[in-house]
Structure formats: structure tokens, C-alpha cells
Amino acid sequence: MESLMIILVGILVSVGTYLILSRQMIRIILGTAILSHAVHLLILTVGGLKKGGVPLLSQSDGPYTDALPQALILTAIVISFATTAFLLVLAYRTYKTNGSADFHELRGMSDE
Amino acid sequence: MTVDIAIILIPFIMAAFIPIFYRQLSKRLIGWFVLVIPVSLFLLLTTYIPRVSSGQTLSNTYEWIPSFNINFTTYIDGLSLIFSLLITGVGSLVILYSIFYLSKKESLHHFYCYLLLFMGAMLGVVFSDHLMVLYAFWELTSVSSFLLIAFWHHRKASRAGARKSMTITVSGGVAMLVGFLMLYVMSGTFSIREIIANIDRISDHTLFVPALILVLLGAFTKSAQFPFHIWLPDAMEAPTPVSAYLHSATMVKAGIYLVARFTPVFGGEIVWFWAVTGVGLITLFWGSFNAVKQVDLKALLAFSTVSQLGLIMSLLGLGSVAIHLGYSSETVIYTQAAFAAIFHLVNHSTFKGALFMMVGIVDHEIGTRDIRRLGGLIRILPLTFTVALIGSFSMAGLPPFNGFLSKEMFFTATLKITELDIFSLDSMGVLIPVVAWVASIFTFVYCLIIVGQTFFGKISPDILEKNPHEAPIGMLISPFILIGFVVGIFFFPNLLGHYILQPAMASIYPTFPSTEEMTPHISAWHGLNTELYMTIGVVLIGVTLYFLLKRWKPIYRIFPQKLSFNVLYERVIGFGENFSERATKRYMTGSLTHYFIYIYMAFVIIAAGVFFMTDSFEWNTKNNAAVESFELILVFVMIFAAIAILFSNSRITTVLLNGVLGFSVAFFFVVFRAPDLALTQLVVESVTTALFLLCFKYLPDLKPEKSTKRVKFTNGVISLLVGATVSVIGLAVMNYDKFESISTYFEDAYNLAGGKNIVNTILGDFRAFDTMLEVVVLFIAGLGVYALIKLKAKKGDADIEN
């Protein structure tokens, strides 16, 4: 399972990177969102999968799944949400101000 | 903390306080307030004279960075005492002079702040025993000199001059730093005294001569030696008190100090002898030769300073021969060259300081320094004329002024050296007195120009119209004190020689047993000897050349302007600027994509590179959990959705596919026993999708990427490399079992934090501070979102909003 998950993570990272390298803002923002999905899965996976029960003391007497990656991911989810929201609004404002959502056009250069 | 360290620190402390307190002080008071410091430091330092002249040296160590063995060791011996007396003494006079010279409208707090910074740095240079500390202070003098030259920074010439001096002196400084590091490699110590003590051990090392040359580069750039002299004339854009202080009396002598300080280390080498003597003599000649053609009085004095620095430098070179020969009763005579060097250094500070102040007065009262427009000022500025006359005649080497004594000793030293038969002196040696003599003739000519063309001849009518008058008494005090020394030293030279110069000889020749022997009895009259005939020749030929100046001045046009060192400097700087601009533009393209590519490539190369070089790849599935069929389906759904995003050109499809990814992740969280994560992910994913959809109302539809196939291919390869790197490292990490997991600690959550949900206790208790900062991030992002949406551009730049 873990190996499979890590290969999935690799694919998600590749897709996210490819989107970030594109020219349109929406694609770049999507790329960051996909990268954060990939990282969350990666953190969870390297902590070990299905090694025990749900980390709730009231549910069982152990063993429990590693709770530390879960806490880290919880923080990361919220922060990636915040940055995604901020980037979206930044894109909106940039488009409104400059009339373009393409980074090459924004740079003011026509050639590659 | 001891008094010696305080001496260095006080100017810095005051420099820090001036910007805070200058508003409370009236413009005129600030100068007097600052003046207290150098005067009291000077008086404090004079109390050291009896102890130092009796042969004592004082050293104090304050451990600064003990882990790197960098100590703040102050070391006061004869050599550093002379320099520190000059720094504080001339500093006092210059500050007194500047109080009357600078208009109250200038930003005086900047001026005095920089001046004190310089004073502290310069004292640091001469008092430091540790090479690294010395280097730091050395560069600080360059920085403060830069700030002072650019004091009138609205003028283009000031900025250019400041940059030039900074570029040249700092380049030399870096060379010197490398030299110091080589010395450290050879000797294992940064302490100058310890290096001198162990000199026998290092003098055969292969790095010895390279270190020698690098240290000399530092000294030559700082002391404006040929061909690095070009910065000094341009530095004359500084206010005249600065020129008098930094660029004639103190900072440019730091190079002399360095050479004198390192004479015991390198003095025995033939390279040292010829480099120091040769460069000094060329500088002496070139400076004096070029001074004659100058029409700006300050430029003339700048070239004259270059020339005089060359003279002192060459004397130190001549004196180094005594180190090579070793101590004996016959070789002691050669130490007199070094004695003459220090003697002339003091003399030069007195007469050149006075001359600069004289030029400042002329500029201040008449409004020009151009000798073609000046003339006949003797009637208007009689007191200033006195200063000019005494200063110039001392520089020209005439009695009864101190310059005569040191110049005679210089001639003696050049004549004595020809008697030696080492270092191929028997063939080349005869050149030394010849060059010295010719340079002295030019020196005499430009000294006559200073006095003659400024104060005699016809006075120009437009100067008379302005009704100029003699300078205020405050501006005259300092130059008169200095010319008092010029005359006083001539009549009582042995007082200076015995109490101040003699202990310095022990610093230059530590292996020689008696400083008494190395201190000649200075007297004005030696009978009719070669030196006197040389001086008489200089006077006769000099006067003739002065009166025939118009006839032979055209020879200066023989040298083509395009071949000067200034043009070379400008070419090199211009080339450097163009090259770096083109090189930078090549990779700083302004394209975000390119910058991302740099970041990703760095990641792949560094992470994957280290990974494979250390051969860390490992993959086994023995600890893996079993794969259920629905999990497999979920994985393929995600892979499909991710790849489909790449090919989607409809934004609704794209956002929905992203939603598929997000909700699949939430599903995985459920499967992997993370209920809190699943809940949060569901909420966040819903809101994010809604947010995307909301934004689509305002953003244009997705277009197919316009990039070329080649660009798409490159991006694809980079993406695959990044993904592969993450996967490969992730797979290897799975089998990393060198450390025990720390997670069991948190399973005691109920006892430690009183909660039964382990994840919650980690967030709310064990790592509560992180969670708080996470909330802060959320808050800042919220503020940013609000500001970007709500705030309109202000009136006046409304066009941004269109």
C-alpha cells in the first residue's frame, strides 16, 4: 500500500509541477493545490499506514495509528487553503488591473 | 575593558550618538561638541609617550570571538603611538578648522558622524595586533572615506570619485586579506607579534612571496602608489577638511603603516626591497612630474601627496636592507632610511595639512582654486600667504623648515644604498639617487607654482570685485599650529627623534638590540657634502625650470590622453558593468516560469544528486500494509483525474477534477484512520471548490497553452524528474529505521494533556504555539484577501483601476 501511495504522490507532484510551469494563473494556482494534496498524502504515508486503530483513546486501547503526521497535515490543510484563497484573489486583482491572466503577457515580452 | 580599547571605541560610540542628539544641539555647537573627543584622546595618548619612549609596549587582550580564536588585542608600541598621535592630533585641528569652513546649512551631523567613524577605524588599524581585526578596521576606513568623499553627493564628480576610491582601495584590501590568510596558513597565528617572533619558521614557505605581494597590494592601493594612485586626485571632491585629514595626513598613510609593520616579516626578501623601493620611487617621480601640470590647487596637492607617499615608501624599502643584512655595527647605518621615513611621515602631515587648509581658505574666500584665475593674493590674504610659503618651502626641502631635514636624510639614504653590492644594487643602484634627485626638482617646481601663481603676479579684476578679505581667525588657528610644528621641528628635531621616533625603530627592527644606535642625531648642518650639493642643484635647476615653465610645458602633451591609467580604469569598470548586466539579463528574464524551472532543477540536482551519490536507494515492500481492491480503484481514479487535468481546456472540468482529487484524498484519510483530517479536508475542499467557481465569474476562461512544443516537452521532463525524485526518496524513507518513533509519547495524551483525541491534544496542547501561528497565517491571508478585494486605488492614480 505504502509503495503504491508513494507512486501516486509522485504522479501528483509531476502534474502539479507541470501546471505550475504553465503560463496561466489559474493553472498555476491549481498546480499549488495539487502539490499540497500530494504532500499531505506523502506525510501520512511515510508515517506508516494502517498500523493501528483510530488515534482516539476512547475508542480502543491501542495500538494507534501514528497521530503526529495527522496533526501536521491538519495544520498544512488549513494553511494551503489560506494560500489558495489568497492566490485566487491576487489573480483576480491582477487580471482586473492589467487585463491579462497570462504571465508572459504580464511580463510585457512577446517572444519566448 | 581597558583604556586602550576605550580609545578605539569612544569615537564609534560618539558617532552612534550624534544622529540621536544633533537635533538638540545648535549647528555651531555640534562641531565643538565633537572636537572634545580627539582633543581628549590626543591628551590621553601623550601620557603614553614617556612609557613608550622608555621602551615599553602595552598590550591588552579582550576575547572577542574566542571560538574562532579572534581576540581584540590592542598593542601600543612606538609605531602605533606615532600614528595614533597623528590621527587624533591632526583630527583635532581638522575638526576645529571644519567648524569655520563648513556652512551651517550643510548636514553637519552626517559629516561629523562619518569623521568620527573614520577616526575610530583608523585608531583600530594602528592598535590592532590581530590581523583579522586589523583588516576589518582597514576596510572600515575605506567605507568612511567613501562616505566622506561623497559628502556632497548631489555632485556627479563626488559620487564618481567616491566610487573610484572605494573600488581601488577595497580591491587592494581583499588582496591583503588573502595575504593575511596565507600568513595564517604558514604561521598558524593571526597575531602580528607572534608571526614576527616565528619568522625563521615561515620564510622558506612557498606561500611566503605570494603573501608578501598580496599584502603589498593592500598597502599600495591604500597609499595611492603607482599605478593605483589615480583614485587620490579624484578623491579631492571631498570637502577640504576631509582631504587634509584622510587624504594627506592619515588614511593614505595606513599603507605606509602596513609596510612598516610588516618590514620585520618580509624585510629580508629581495622582492620586498625592489617592490617597495621601486614602486615608491616611480610614484615619487610620477606624482611630482604630474603635479606640475595641474591647474587646480587641490589636484596639484593630491599629486604632490602621491609623490610624497612614494618618497616615504621608497625610504622604507631602502631601510629593509638592514633586515636582510642582519645586525652589525656596519649595517646599523641602513636603518636610518626607515628612521627618515617615519620622520618625513610626521613632517609631511604637518606641512601638507597646513597646505590643504591654505587651499581651503583660498577656495572659501576667493571662490576658486584654479591657478589660472588666481594671482596676487598676497595683498588680500597675507596670513594665508605665510602658511603657503612655509608649507611649500618645507615640502620643497628648504631650511629652516622640517622638510629640509628629512629630505637631506632621504638623499643620504639613497646615496648610501649605492655602496652595497647585494640585490644587484651595484648595477641598478645608481638609478636610485638619480630618480630621487630628478623628482625633487619637480617637487621644487610645483612648490614654487603653489606660492608664485597663487600669491604673486597680477590680481584678476573679477576677484577684486567680490571684495574678498582674510579668513576668520578660527580657520587660521589650525594651519598656524601646523606651521608652528614645521618650524619647531626644524629647530628641535632631536626632541621628536628621541621621544617619538626612536621607539618606532624598535617596532621596525625588533631584532636589533639598541634603538639608541638606530637614532641618528639630526642636525641641519653636515658640512659641504654630496647631499647639500644635490639640494643646491635642485634649487638652481628648479628655479630655472619655474621661470621657463611656458617653454617646456608642452612636453606634457607628448603623452597621449588615451593611454592614461584613468582610461584603463574606466574601460575595466565599464566592461565589468556591461558584462554583468548582460550576464544577469540572460537568466533574470522576468518570467516566473523560468524562475520556477531554476528552483525545480536545483531541487532535482541537489536532492536526487546527493541521494544517488550516497547510494541511498532502497525499496522493499515487506512492511507494507495490504492493498484492498477499493483502495486500488481510488488510486486509479486519482491518477486518471490528475492526468485529465493536464488536458482539460474547460475551467469547469478542471475545477471538478480538482474536486475529485480533493475528495479522494478525504476518502484516503478515512481509510488511513484519520477521521479529523477527513472532516477538515471535506470542509476545506468544498470551500475551495466554491471559491474557484466564484473566481471564474471574474477571470477569463482557460485557453490552450500557447507555448511551443519544445517548451512543453522541457516542462514535461522537468515535472517527471521532480515527481520521480519525490517518489524515489519517499520509497527509501519508508525503510528508514535508524531512530525510534517519538509518537508513542503522545499516546499518553490523557495523562499529559487531559484529552482523549490524540490529534487534538497535539494541536491544542503539545504544539499549541504552532496552531496559534497557523491561525495568524490564516488571519494574514484573510487580511490580504480583504485588502485586495475591497481597497480601491487612491485618487490620483485612479487609472490603475481602469
TrEMBL record, chain A:
Gene3D superfamilies: 1.10.287.3510. It is found in: Cell membrane. Its main location: membrane. InterPro entries: CPA3_antiporter_subunitC, NUOK/Mnh_C1-like. GO terms for cellular component: plasma membrane. The chain crosses the membrane at residues 6-21, 28-47, 67-92. Keywords: Cell membrane, Membrane, Transmembrane, Transmembrane helix. Pfam families: Oxidored_q2 (PF00420). Signal peptide: none annotated. The keyword Oxidoreductase does not apply. NCBIfam families: PRK08600.1, PRK12660.1. Belongs to the CPA3 antiporters (TC 2.A.63) subunit C family. This is Na(+)/H(+) antiporter subunit C. It comes from Lysinibacillus antri.
From TrEMBL, chain B:
Residues 637-700 form the MrpA C-terminal/MbhD domain. One of its GO terms (cellular component) is plasma membrane. It is a multi-pass membrane protein. It comes from the Bacteria. One of its GO terms (molecular function) is antiporter activity. Residues 128-425 form the NADH:quinone oxidoreductase/Mrp antiporter transmembrane domain. GO terms for biological process: proton transmembrane transport; sodium ion transport. Its main location: membrane. Keywords: Antiport, Cell membrane, Hydrogen ion transport, Ion transport, Membrane, Sodium, Sodium transport, Transmembrane, Transmembrane helix, Transport. Residues 65-112 form the NADH-Ubiquinone oxidoreductase (complex I) chain 5 N-terminal domain. Residues 715-790 form the MrpA C-terminal/MbhE domain. It is found in: Cell membrane; Membrane. Pfam families: MbhD, MbhE, Proton_antipo_M, Proton_antipo_N. The chain crosses the membrane at residues 6-22, 29-49, 78-99, 111-127, 133-153, 165-187, 207-232, 244-264, 270-289, 301-327, 333-359, 380-401, 430-452, 473-492, 532-549, 595-613, 625-647, 654-672, 678-696, 717-736, 771-789. Belongs to the CPA3 antiporters (TC 2.A.63) subunit A family. NCBIfam families: 2a6301s01, PRK12645.1. This is Na+/H+ antiporter subunit A. It comes from Lysinibacillus antri. The lineage of its organism: Bacteria, Bacillati, Bacillota, Bacilli, Bacillales.
